[in-house]
Amino acid sequence: MPRHAIRPRSGRTCRRIVGIAALLAAMMLPAAAQEEKPMTAAESDPVALGWMVGAPPPADKIIRFTDPDYFSFPKLRWTVCHFRQLMPTIGVGRGLGPLRFFERRLDDSIDALTFTPLGSDKPMRFSDSLAANYTDGIAILHDGKLIYERYFGCLDDTGKHGAMSVTKSLTGLLGEMLVAEGGIDDKAKVATLVPELAQSAFGDATVRQVLDMTTGLHYSEDYSDPDADVWTYSAAGNPLPKPADYTGPRTYFDYLKTVRKEGEHGAAFGYKTINSDALGWIIARVTGKSVATLLSERIWSRMGAEQDAYYTVDSIGTPFAGGGLNAGLRDMARIGQLMLDDGKQDGEQIIPAAAIAHIRAGGDKAAFAKGGYPLLKGWSYTGMWWISHNPNGAFMARGVHGQAIYVDPAARMVIARFASNPQASNAANDPTSLPAYAAVAKYLMAK
Q: pTM of the full predicted structure?
């Protein structure tokens, strides 16, 4: 999930570098912090604004990876669909197998469903919530059939969009698959699998603690702090040539070796992207394949995907396992359907049922409660998925700026959404997203 460029601070070379991993700066920092009231979805539509149109585009409509605001609102509304034009990537091939098309039973009455946003007493129509959340695309499946599909802004049904931290959930899913199959012992210490991490904070953590993000790491993702660790991490992950005087880590792997321990592993949930990249290294070391290759071989090429996907990478081609996936909307819905159907599709067990059962059961609620998510009371986190523990057993993958795969087993419903909300934190999306998803589930269960 590439975030916007790092703001420089004099005397610190690493912050003079535009960082791919700074995408994850989007986790906490509102991209439109400089605006009290950002442009509406209609006003910020990238097509209407004419970003990157022309041969060449007008100078004031050009977006480059080296621009300090390439991922700031409103430019981000174009960028989320065009990362491949801006930076190096590695593909996730769909293989040569047949496409698996969804049966279409579109239900436009979903637009008129109403719900009450969290913290409000005024009802909202489902269709109005899409603009409120700067939705770029949304697809809803019911019993495996496509019942609702909308595209806006930079996205259409042939395009790809940044999945941001939804990427983490696919990295976690690959990890859970290997655990279920016996390829990884989740009780094993990380250092036994990746000796290079023995002296880092990860060394004495278990694979399970990495999967559940209960590691004790000295790592700050406070993007308002110019000395936060995220800036060094971002510089390490930047694929562009480093300045001559740069002396810091040069890859994701190099950076992970420098992370120091803080607190005890297993004590509390702490959402830190570097856990996902550590898991990506574990997966690569155990299987001999990058997360991009393994995702292609194990899932993407077997589920009838419509399109190849891709990851952004660092300077040595390492996929950004914490946020670099870009894919088509319906293919993200296919992932959700596999999760709903216990990993089975057309009689073939693509994902071990035990891996999905573990995720759906959830993690340590007490540990999660220490993470500070007031809108997600009673939730938990495991396998890099977010578990609601609501009566329907809903669980989801979540990414900044509004990316989501939401699975509701009781309603037999999957919602996949891409968005480009100017506010990065999901706290900006959840008040109108979570009750909207629940309203659709209730409607489908009553049919």
A: 0.93
